[in-house]
Amino acid sequence: MTFVAAAAAAECPRKDALGTSRVLAVDAATTPRVGLKSFPQTLPLEDHEVVLTFDDGPWPATDRRILAVLAQECVRATFFLIGKPASEHPELVRRIAAEGHTIAHHTWTHHNLKYMKPEAAIGEIDKGVAAVEKALHGTATTTPSTPFFRFPFFDMTPATLDALQKRGIAVFGADLWASDWNPMTPAQQLKLLTERLQVARKGIILLHDPKAQTTAMLPAFLRWLRDNRYRVVHLVPAGAKTVSDKAQ
């Protein structure tokens, strides 16, 4: 596996904020699959380093609050967006990107691709990519500007995996998650997630931005990360300009 570690993240004006410790550029051509839930390898994170990822947006009812919380703590995340809501809320897609987060892909309608024929599954992926790219850049294309993809439900087939690898699209699983698809209070979710992280000590964390309980939990979770000396790593595709690059 080849990774490129980019410059440190931009300075945060709030000195007591959690902040983003560094930027990690992932080369999809040489790192086709990461996440211990689904694959034998993951990102080369150090002890107490985490990557925050959010699935199933854009979702106006919760994303504006999530973005405000992330901005308050100077934290950058990766959002795996679904194409249909992206086409319905393009201004929110552009806002997520404008605030420095990475925009990745999560199909057109969140169908389970494992039970679709390969050509239909690729069609679902491409329609989602095209919708997100149109929302983000104004032009529909099946070549993603950020070649990061996550399968709904982590369900995949060898044929679809191979097709994405040939196109240089990295497939992201996760290393741990909040199980926020299950109803629970924000306090219960915080306890579950922090206990899992204390065992794993690092990793790609999966959250779901449409979930109100996750939105409510997020401020306390970011404070917990800060108080327990965890560091947030921001992912970008290899070759992308970082904030530090743009400032030069």
What does this structure look like?
- With 248 residues, this protein is α/β, with parallel strands linked by helices.
- The protein has a single domain (34-230), classed as Glycoside hydrolase/deacetylase (TIM Barrel, Alpha-Beta Barrel).
- The protein has helices at residues 60-72, 83-88, 90-98, 118-137, 158-166, 186-200, 212-227, 243-247; strands spanning 3-8, 20-26, 33-34, 49-57, 78-81, 102-105, 148-149, 170-172, 176-177, 203-208, 231-237.
- The protein has eight helices and eleven strands.
- It is 38% helix and 21% strand.
- It is globular and about 50 Å long.
The backbone outline, from C-alpha atoms, is globular
The third-level CATH topology is: TIM Barrel
Q: Could you state the order of secondary-structure elements as H and E?
A: EEEEHEHHEHEHEEHEHEH
Taking pLDDT < 50 over at least 5 consecutive residues as the criterion, the unreliable ranges are 1-7, 242-248
- By CATH, the superfamily comes out as Glycoside hydrolase/deacetylase
N- to C-terminal distance: 29 Å
Rg over alpha carbons? 17 Å
Strand content: 15-25%
- Averaged pLDDT, please? 93
- Give the biggest sheet: 8 strands, mixed
What is the correct CATH architecture? Alpha-Beta Barrel
Structure classification: alpha/beta
Task: Tell me the number of strands.
Answer: 11
How would you describe the oligomerization state of the chains in this entry?
Answer: single chain
Number of separate helices: 8
User: Helicity, in percent?
Assistant: 25-40%
**Top-tier CATH class:** Alpha Beta
Domains, number:
1
